[in-house]
Design a protein that fits this description.
Elements: E1 18-19, E2 25-32, E3 35-42, E4 53-54, H1 58-64
Parallel strand pairs: 1-4
Antiparallel strand pairs: 2-3
Bound molecules: S-adenosylmethionine (SAM).
Length: about 70
């Protein structure tokens, strides 16, 4: 099943994760009991002060426009 998570109006710090074609983290779904949660998981060492980015995926970019700056 597919689900959309919209963080436009509420959320935590993860709502500020921007897209990158060379991301240092990824959105990764986990099921916790009956809940589907999305975690932000590092895919490489991220030094303090580095912007955390993730690949939004083709579907998002096709729908909302190419935000890719690389
Ligand atoms: C989840 S929000 C990310 C946080 C947002 N930049 C902010 O300051 O609230 C997603 C939105 O951020 C912007 N965005 C994300 N990645 C971007 C990028 N690489 N270049 C330009 N805009 C980006 C787009 O407007 C996108 O719809």
């Amino acid at each position: 099943p597919k689900a959309d998570i919209d963080s436009e109006w509420t959320g935590n710090w993860t709502r500020f994760v921007n897209h990158s074609c060379e991301p240092n983290a990824r959105f990764w779904p986990y099921r916790v009991g009956n809940h589907l949660v999305m975690v932000v998981e590092a895919v490489e060492e991220i030094l303090a002060g580095t912007e955390i980015t993730a690949d939004y995926g083709k579907e998002y970019l096709a729908r909302y426009g190419p935000h890719c700056l690389c």
